[in-house]
Hints:
Largest sheet: 5 strands, mixed
Oligomer: single chain
Helix content: 40-55%
Amino acid sequence: MKALFLISVLIALASFAAAIEFDLPASVEGTGARRCLSQWLPKGTHSKVNAKVHPGFPGQKVSMEIHDDSPHLNQYGARKHVDEVLFRFDTQAHANVIVCFQNILEPGYPADGRALTIQFKMDTGAMAEDFHRVQEEEKLKPMELELRRLSMSLDDIQEELQYLKQREGTLRDANEHMNSRVKTFSFFSIAVLISVAVYQVFYLRHFFQQKKLI
């Protein structure tokens, strides 16, 4: 019982620590820099992104988009005018999931350094699940719900460890292949140097014989 309580507290603290807040200055559309945040996630990870824009000076409009940096550049969501938004999606590749914000200054308003405060939170795996809905649908008791949460968290860790193991194997194979190529090139270089040295010896010997120096 105590162990489950401690695990629940740690999960809650991890979720709280993931929420961040930052100020985003307004800029004319097409000229301002975007503020992007990223997190690497394995393929098939269930994710939840929450964003909330706190009220500020008028004339500002925050846009948001979510994509990854895989070769396919998968798009997971976009919103032109963000007040408070929630995105849920499953990742399509092993890649960094990137969330970008831009505060656009509307026409007719001066660029006087005004900014908006954005609250951002990204949950993945078990933390992205709606356990209240699960509890209501499956009529789970609090203890059963915590066990379900713990089970899903352990599954996430196991999947990530499995991917890291596969990644390590791939990198090890690539390293061994590179070492083999380096070894082959080293033997070839030594053979070339020996051949050049032998050729120089015979050439110099022939040269000196022609000059009757030996």
